[in-house]
Design brief:
The chain has 444 residues and is mainly α. It contains 16 helices and 2 strands. The protein has one domain: Glycosyltransferase (Alpha/alpha barrel). Helix 10 packs parallel to helix 13.
């Protein structure tokens, strides 16, 4: 196990992450004031911050309004959570993995939205969420030593890790943790716990992760690419920030993604290399395709054209995914697509677009915003479930998709042996995989 802080490349990567998350890159300087819908309201300030960051008028309005709506949806006794609500319950309650994961997804989007430095309401909400997520490591239901079977604590590990790593990456003097220095120690401790949690529940021999394990944790089984891709991304970000991550876990997870990927780029719902991936399942696979291909491209295992084809499939088969939006049931034929894949796929598509070479991005960004507009609710939120509470999840992922141009890119990755050989080589990130100063530029 090694911390990813080796050589010149890791130094550049850490600097890039810090720069991408610095308040100046997020559109600081817009003062947040009290009010409702007036020109001096917090929402107006958030819209202005998004406009200053380069977003066109409509998208800037959606971002500002979504931030306000998301803040209003924070709940719990300490007003510190955005629980994801689905049909799965543990003893009749939303499981802690969903509460930690949903809270982290919302907080990640709030961290990234422009104007954070001067948005005291948002900073306070993020800190409340951080206290909850960091404190959840004490909950027995988050212990990685469990019997296996169907369980969602791994989702909590993945998104909690990404949230806390990004929170910690803000400059100490100006980031949200500057408002609560004592919390920084708890955040660092929790990051180590969540890394360890993902490593502990890795699927033996196969690699990767699956929330629906077939038996105990020490039994090999198929990996689920739509879970494995975000887990890998979170570990990549943690390693890039200098935290200790097991290279072998990442290598095996990447191999599992390749195993789940068919020759035409279609991903199995879950796989271990023994089944045949049916190309006819492609319309239902578009969310995991863009998520998996973006990670594999960042790891140097695919070419940009491969990811471009997956994004083209996302838009070509979008209506097939939309059929299941806000419907009852989960894995319904013919594609086995559950409603919660809908907004997941949009968040993954937004991130994937930014992995493409710069000349290809704009057309995809505009197409994604057009689809988001099509399913945006009248109150300024997005929801792909039948549960009103799940608007927090849908809205956060819509924000993630729109904010991807100014978010930290998926870190490149090479195994320790490769990196030691290439320490003096030029940085070979995925082509065009770098944050831009503005999300809206002229089409080439």
């Amino acid at each position: 196990m090694t911390p990813w802080s080796r050589g010149t490349r890791s130094g550049r990567a850490a600097a890039a992450l810090t720069a991408a998350l610095a308040p100046a890159a997020l559109g600081q300087g817009v003062e947040s004031t009290t009010g409702d819908a007036s020109a001096s309201s917090p929402t107006a300030a958030r819209i202005a911050a998004a406009t200053a960051a380069g977003y066109p008028d409509a998208a800037a309005s959606w971002i500002g309004e979504a931030v306000t709506r998301l803040l209003a949806m924070q709940e719990g006794e300490a007003n510190d959570q955005w629980p994801y609500e689905g049909v799965y319950r543990v003893r009749g309650r939303i499981p802690v993995g969903y509460r930690v994961g949903g809270t982290s997804i919302a907080a990640i989007s709030l961290l990234q939205a422009p104007g954070l430095a001067e948005d005291s309401e948002r900073r306070a909400a993020i800190l409340r969420a951080a206290r909850f997520v960091a404190g959840a490591i004490q909950d027995p239901a988050m212990n990685p030593d469990y019997r296996g079977g169907y369980d969602v604590r791994g989702w909590g590990y993945a998104y909690a890790l990404r949230f806390l790593v990004r929170l910690e990456a803000f400059p100490k003097a100006t980031g949200p943790l500057a408002d609560d220095p004592e919390l920084a120690t708890e955040v660092s401790k929790a990051i180590g716990f969540y890394i360890g949690g993902l490593e502990a529940i890795e699927i033996p021999r196969v690699g990767g992760w699956n929330y629906a394990r077939r038996g105990p944790l020490d039994r090999p089984g198929p990996a689920a690419p739509f879970m494995t891709a975000p887990c890998v991304r979170s570990l990549l970000e943690a390693g890039q920030a200098g935290h200790v991550v097991d290279d072998g876990v990442v290598e095996r997870a990447l191999a599992s993604l390749e195993t789940c990927r068919g020759e035409d780029g279609t991903y199995a719902y879950a796989g271990d290399g023994r089944g045949v991936i049916d190309p006819a399942s492609r319309p239902g696979a578009i969310g995991r395709m863009v998520a998996g291909d973006a990670v594999l491209l960042a790891a140097g295992r695919l070419e940009p054209e491969d990811l471009r084809r997956s994004l083209e499939s996302f838009f070509a088969y979008w209506e097939e995914l939309e059929i299941r939006r806000a419907r009852s049931g989960t894995h319904v034929a013919p594609y086995g697509v559950a409603p919660y894949y809908f907004m997941y796929a949009h968040g993954a598509a937004g991130e994937a677009i930014e992995c493409l070479p710069a000349p290809w991005r704009m057309a995809f960004r505009r197409a994604l915003r057009a689809r988001l507009e099509q399913v945006r609710d009248d109150d300024g939120t997005w929801n792909d479930r039948i549960f009103p509470r799940s608007a927090n999840y849908g809205t956060a992922l819509a924000l993630e998709a729109m904010l991807a141009p100014i978010a930290p890119p998926i870190p490149e990755w090479r195994a320790a042996a490769e990196e030691s050989e290439a320490v003096d080589a030029p940085n070979r990130s995925a082509p065009g995989n770098a944050p831009e100063t503005t999300p809206e530029t002229t089409d080439p």
